[in-house]
Design goal:
By secondary structure, the chain is an alpha/beta fold. Helix content is about 40%, strand content about 15%. It folds into two domains: about 1-175 and about 360-385, Glycogen Phosphorylase B (Rossmann fold); about 200-355, 3-Layer(aba) Sandwich (Rossmann fold). It has helices at about 15-30, 45-50, 75-80, 95-105, 120-125, 130-145, 155-160, 215-220, 240-250, 265-275, 290-295, 310-315, 325-335, 340-355, 360-375, and strands spanning about 1-10, 35-40, 60, 85-90, 110-115, 150, 170, 200-205, 230-235, 255-260, 275-280, 300-305, 320, 385.
Length: about 400
């Protein structure tokens, strides 16, 4: 079975989507009788990041016209010659959605679509009029033409139905790699700024308004005497970092908050291993890789219900927070009042949950069964819900 993954970017520019699809492709390609390849659109980070996909072969194509659409005629030609049995598109609202429909018309073969949270209510309201145009022009046809839709969680499955889609849906989460904690950790990325005696709360992700960092900074200003420090890591999108830095100065908490920029490799590992807690006070998510990674490192997590990981609350591995400033302030204060031992126990429960539920080899095996069912060579997996 030959599986081709198609997404708008193969690099860090695609946030957690690129990493989750890359690790899925790499794990699927390790299964007996399965080959995987990946196709994307070129961007400023493609040349730096494409090697991370090895041994999965990749191709990226130049864009003609505005980046927002990503028109890349070279993608059409490449898919036609890829000899794929099934296509798996990740993300919406750009040219890969159109290319997948063209490929199906030419080959009569099936494709799977993973919206990655892009049909959740908050995501639909963001730049809503542009998405309405794209929906009518091509996106609804792309979605309705899928042999199966992939939802990362039950909440996303409900959003797909609320959008009016009646395709079969498979519900499978993102996966995570369990780290080797036997190696000695490197110094924390904030070690030159914050005392090692102070607990540090970590945010790691792209700096975008939907991540809820503005209410987090406002709440932090109210509890500035807590003794905690905040490390914000991730790449800037649309100038949001400058807005946040300005707000931190205005609130006079800039001495307690450190903006680290993107972290990769050993630096990223050191951040997880040194953090006393991880926070994602987000308005909207698909299923955030950063939370799975924090759990894998045994870090206690603070998150909103919009992070779509109710398993964390059920396992007492996560602390519920909200995006409203006063609620968030109270929730941070309550978390800070916990003992170090209780926080460590919460982190261990998260680590156990990651190992039990979210390891990549298990997720890849289940997704491969979905592909075989879609092309007619396998039984229907238990994760699939038939259309209404």
């Amino acid at each position: 079975m030959n599986v081709a993954y198609v997404l708008s970017s193969l690099s860090r520019s695609n946030g957690g989507i690129s990493k989750s699809v890359r690790r899925l492709a790499q794990n699927v390609s390790q299964l007996d009788g399965v080959r995987a390849s990946a196709f994307g659109l070129e961007d400023e980070h493609t040349s730096d990041d494409v090697a991370l996909w090895a041994p999965v072969p990749t191709r990226a194509f130049p864009i003609r016209g505005p980046r927002a659409l990503g028109f890349a005629p070279g993608l059409d030609r490449a898919l036609e010659t890829a000899a794929a049995d099934v296509l798996h598109t990740a993300g919406l609202w750009m040219y890969p959605s159109i290319a997948a429909r063209k490929w199906k018309r030419k080959t009569s073969r099936p494709y799977i679509v993973s919206p990655h949270g892009m049909l959740d209510p908050w995501a639909l309201r963001n730049s809503g009029w542009k998405k309405k145009i794209a929906e009518r022009a091509y996106e609804r046809a792309h979605l309705e033409g899928a042999a199966c839709l992939h939802a990362l969680c039950e909440s996303e499955a409900s959003s797909l139905r609320a959008f009016g889609l009646r395709n079969p849906i498979c519900v499978l989460p993102n996966g995570v790699d369990l780290p080797d904690l036997s190696r000695a950790p490197e110094p924390a990325p904030w070690s030159a700024r914050f005392s090692t005696d102070l607990p540090v709360m970590l945010f790691l992700g792209r700096l975008h308004p939907k991540k809820g960092l503005t209410p987090l900074l406002r709440a932090w200003a109210t509890i500035r005497d807590s003794g905690w420090r905040l490390a914000i890591a991730g790449w800037d999108q649309g100038g949001h970092r400058a807005e946040l830095e300005k707000l931190a100065r205005e609130l006079r908490v800039d001495e307690q908050i450190l903006f680290l920029g993107p972290l990769h490799g050993a630096q990223k590992e050191a951040a997880y291993r040194s953090a006393s807690a991880f926070i994602l006070s987000s308005f909207s998510e698909g299923l955030p890789m950063a939370i799975l990674e924090a759990w894998a490192y045994g870090v206690p997590v603070l998150m909103t219900e919009a992070c779509n990981l109710p398993e964390g609350f059920a396992a007492d591995a996560a602390w519920l927070v909200h995006t409203e400033e006063r609620e968030l302030t109270r929730e941070l204060q309550s978390f800070f009042s916990m003992s170090v031992e209780d926080r460590r126990a919460m982190g261990q429960r998260g680590c156990d949950l990651a190992a039990r539920t979210f390891e990549w080899p298990r997720i890849a095996t289940e997704m491969a069964a979905v592909y075989r069912w879609a092309i007619g060579t396998g039984e229907k997996p238990a994760c699939i819900r038939e259309g209404a």
